[in-house]
Design a protein that fits this description.
By secondary structure, the protein is an alpha/beta fold. It is 32% helix and 26% strand. It has helices spanning 50-57, 81-89, 105-115, 122-132, 148-160, 178-193, 205-211, and strands at 4-14, 23-34, 39-43, 65-70, 73-74, 90-93, 166-170, 197-201, 214-219, 222-227. The strands form two sheets. The chain has a six-stranded mixed beta sheet, sandwiched between helices. A hairpin with a 2-residue loop joins strand 4 (65-70) and strand 5 (73-74). The mean pLDDT is 92. The structure holds adenosine-5'-diphosphate and magnesium ion. Magnesium ion is lined by residues 50-51, 95, 170.
Length: 236
């Protein structure tokens, strides 16, 4: 069961202004340890670095400075079987859709299951995951046939197919109505009670305040708050 650690991790990007040759920190010197079974809200305004931090945690991007460790192993050294292990470790919902437009929902989920090492049982696992998010009947639909809210729930199902120990969720609740958000928070709470780590970037302050879990706050790429039993806006 993985422990994930950011050690002085920074990510730099070139400025979008072509004349500006300097690089800018998307996130800077992040130091965080996330134990198995934690529930973490990642908050901060747009551009604060939430998505970058999630991508670092899941090994989607590498830090330019510092390190990302999964169970004390620097993921920059992950290759071969270690890469496959990384894919099995994380269930990811990105801010941008990961669904393939020309494949049905069921095909999408089975592709994701196989990518994380599932072989024969991926269809049953996909059906189960769609049931968990309350959309058991959309398997034959294409992504474009669903509402934005349904697409987000399908993306959560996609992340759940292989029952990963860690969920990294980027703005999963954006564009959803309150009832659906409650259903999803309830599901995540249940999964967390059974041991799944949940790290969730969100603007949904009311849910953060009701849940009272660990709250990490980013401002301009830096962590300015990391509080247990926190509320939206807690710092230090
Ligand atoms: P958030 O998810 O909190 O809105 P991001 O992590 O997406 O923030 O972005 C943090 C900063 O890094 C922003 O200033 C953003 O413009 C910059 N950034 C993120 N990704 C890239 C990229 N691929 N290329 C250039 N700049 C980027
Ligand atoms: Mg983001």
């Amino acid at each position: 069961m993985p422990v994930i650690c950011l050690e002085n991790a920074s990510k730099l990007y070139k400025s979008e202004d072509k004349k500006d040759k300097r690089k800018h920190y998307a996130v800077r010197e992040l130091n965080v340890t996330i134990e198995q079974g934690e529930f973490v809200f990642l908050i901060g305004s747009s551009g604060a670095g939430k998505s970058t931090m999630l991508k670092l945690l899941g090994g989607e991007i590498s830090p330019d400075e510092g390190a990302v460790l999964v169970d004390s192993v620097n993921i920059a050294r992950y290759f071969g079987p270690w890469k496959a292990r990384l894919a099995r470790t994380f269930g990811i919902v990105s801010q941008q859709t990961l669904l393939i437009r020309k494949r049905t929902i069921m095909e999408n989920l089975m592709v994701a299951g196989r990518a994380s090492g599932m072989q024969r049982k991926s269809k049953a696992a996909a059906e189960k995951a769609l049931g968990l998010v309350g959309l058991p009947n959309v398997g034959e639909c294409f992504p474009a046939q669903l509402s934005i809210g349904e697409v987000r729930r399908v993306e959560l199902a996609r992340a759940l197919v292989s029952s990963p120990p860690v969920l990294l969720l980027d703005e999963l609740t954006a564009n959803l109505d309150d009832d659906t958000i409650w259903d999803i928070i309830h599901l995540l709470h249940e999964l967390n009670n059974r041991g799944t780590t949940v790290v969730m970037a969100t603007h949904a302050s009311q849910y953060v305040n009701i849940m009272r879990r660990r709250v990490i706050t980013l401002v301009d790429g830096k962590i300015i708050g990391d509080v247990q039993n926190g509320k939206y806006g807690d710092i230090v």
